[in-house]
Amino acid sequence: xxCMTTCCCCFNTYQGSIIIGVxxxxxxxxxxxxxxxxxxTWDTNNGEVTEWAQNITGSLExxxxxxxxxxxxxxxxxxxxxxxxxxxLIYFVGSxxxxxxxxxxxxxxxxCLMLPWLTVxxxxxxxxxxxxxxxxxxxxxxxxxxxxxxxVMSGLGIIPExxxxxxxxxxxxxxxxxxxxxxxxxxxxxxxxxIQVLTPVGENKY
Length: 206
Fold this sequence. Notes:
By secondary structure, the protein is an all-alpha fold. The protein has six helices and two strands, in the order ββαααααα.
């Protein structure tokens, strides 16, 4: 697989991976703080959060029966937003830890610390890509032109995020591959066993 040698045409993959780790850490920490605040003040804000979630769900009520499963899932999530917030908190905490591990792994040239971030971001890319496909699929089954336009614009708005995330993932993976090549170059060669010369059968020794 071809690897990148530069990031944004002005950084090497080491510097780019550090920057990407920091950029991944900042929104994750922000998410932890925001979700933690909502959970701590749930008794006060639960009505507003639930109403906001139900308003989002209401935009899908005009969808066709093809996506009833998706609508039912969103309805169930909006009815139990406290559980959704707990799941989001776990996700943001995990993302923060993987970003810290990435920064530490790049700084210390330890590939094993980079793997969690590479895995989590790859799974997130696959999930978001599927969501974009679902937006376009749902737009095809919505008779209301306003709702259809909203779904299409939502899907198109996520595409730049997918492209930027994929670029960052490739940069980090390229540095991971670079470290792997360096480890293979400095690995000691296995010692060759001495060759034993066998004396032909029947040969007399003097």
